[in-house]
Design brief:
Number of helices: 10
Strand content: under 5%
Distance between the termini: 33 Å
Radius of gyration: 18 Å
Order of helices and strands: HHHHHHEEHHHH
Helix content: over 70%
């Protein structure tokens, strides 16, 4: 999601489609269990389709669609049937197979596919192991930092963050995202029974989300496209909308699996 000091002409479509996505997503988060697993699996499948369409636009019809469907089914089955290194190995094999089928940009595809799949595992694990409260916190961090960046970038403006990769992003929007993430982290200390370290984690997750946004901008620039698809009015594709969430969820998975999350939020 880009931020600049321009007009708000796209705000209506962004808000309407954002509300619909939020309602569907929050419903899946609240339901948890197999409902949330299906939701994340389908979302991952769509994003894989968008990624492969960008990197291999000349592929025959049905090739990217088949890859997306395969990933959605594989993620659902792998989560329910495998654990530990078996799960990691199955996901790695999936990434390898899909990447090798591309005629070019295999390393780019492999890296982004790895990030996407493990981020989706992170989302599922966060909901099933830590509960809906932690997932709600993560979602609010990502959305909040994006919204703060959107409005601060357009109202305050100022120097660009990285004009060559994401020409509309500003430093004012970036810092505003960090600030709101810290506020959200402080507000969730009580509900999550966490210490002040949650504020630090919240800012780190917001930074990761912003990095994910920039990474997807670089990917689109490399592919020569404006949006990953046109499935969502005002937002482009699902990869455009969830680019920050992908990086944030992957970061949470790393923090949780390494034990750093427990140390930081005591």
């Amino acid at each position: 999601m880009s931020t600049d000091a321009g007009s708000f002409s796209d705000l209506r479509d962004r808000v309407l489609s954002g509300v619909v996505m939020a309602l569907v997503g929050l419903g899946a988060v609240w339901a948890g269990g197999i409902v949330f697993l299906i939701f994340v699996s389908l979302l991952c499948g769509v994003m894989v389709w968008e990624l492969l369409k960008m990197l291999d636009p000349e592929a025959a019809f049905g090739r990217a669609e088949a890859a997306g469907f395969t990933v959605a089914v594989a993620l659902f089955v792998f989560w329910r049937q495998l654990d530990g290194l078996w799960l990691v190995g199955a996901l790695a094999l999936t990434v390898l197979i899909l990447s090798l089928r591309l005629p070019r940009d295999r390393l780019i595809a492999g890296g982004y596919l790895t990030l996407m799949l493990f981020a989706c595992i992170g989302l599922i694990a966060l909901r099933s192991v830590y509960g809906w409260e932690w997932l709600a916190w993560l979602v609010l961090i990502v959305i909040g930092s994006d919204v703060a960046g959107y409005f601060a970038g357009r109202i305050i403006g100022g120097p660009k963050l990285w004009p060559r990769v994401s020409p509309k992003k500003t430093w004012s929007g970036t810092v505003a995202g960090w600030a709101l993430a810290a506020v959200i982290g402080a507000a969730f200390m009580g509900p999550l029974a966490a210490g002040a370290g949650l504020i630090i984690v919240s800012v780190l997750v917001a930074m990761a989300g912003q990095a994910g946004d920039i990474a997807e901008s670089a990917l689109k620039r490399h592919a020569g496209v404006k949006d990953s698809s046109n499935l969502i009015p005002g937002h482009g594709g699902f990869l455009d909308r969830f680019d920050a969430m992908i990086a944030a969820a992957a970061t949470m998975l790393i923090l949780a699996e390494t034990g750093l999350l427990a140390l930081l939020v005591r």
